Amino acid sequence: MAEEKEEVEGAEEQPNKKSPIILIVVLVVVGLVLAVGISTFVMKQMMEDAASEEEFDDSKPHDSGIFIKLGDAKEGILVNVGGPRAGKYLKAGIVLEVNPSKKSVINEETHAFNPEAEIKVMDTTTQFLRSVQIEDFDAQKQNDLKKQLKEALNAELGNGAVYDVYITSFLLQ
Question: Each residue of 88-117: pLDDT tens digit?
Fold first, then answer.
């Protein structure tokens, strides 16, 4: 009888010993599944961020952008150039071709700049034009000037935000 009780007790102990082992194995498997899921999610987010920050390639064809004129609709931009003592003023009509997929820059409904983007564009353009030397406003250097302005705007708004810069009028006096 004593032996039967020991066998019964031994039989009862084995399931108890297996149950914590099974519980530990299940917890380890669940932990691994969670770790894989979290790491996959994090990597996916990092890849999307890297793709959105990837440098925009001008040589590739792109859809037509949204054309937005800077400054006053009739006058354009009026800037004091060449320093405060130079007494030179630039009146320019500048039109930007903006990437329509940049939701942080363009309002989809109005096809105009978002208020924050408009402030950045005007500030960057004004500061850029004021910092240019008088000699660099020469007609032969206009393409370089447009390229540099485009680079300055893309640096402020994000790569690929501005497709191109067009100068529709230019008066330096």
Answer: 888 999 999 998 888 888 888 888 888 999
CB 50 within 8 A of CB 95: no
CA distance 124 to 11: 81
Q: What is the pTM of this model?
A: 0.64
Alpha helix locations (H) across 54-169? 115-131, 142-157
Distance CA 128, CA 81 (A): 10
Q: Is 167 left (phi over 0), alpha (psi -120 to 50) or beta?
A: beta
CB-based contact 96:121 (threshold 8 Å): yes
CA gap 57, 127 in Å, rounded: 25
Q: Which two tokens stand for residue 155?
A: 């640096």
Question: Which segments within the chain are labelled E, that is strand?
Answer: 66-69, 77-81, 88-98, 106-107, 112-113, 162-172
Q: How many other C-beta atoms are found inside a 10 Å radius of the C-beta of residue 165?
A: 21
Give the Cα separation of 105 and 165 in Å (integer): 16
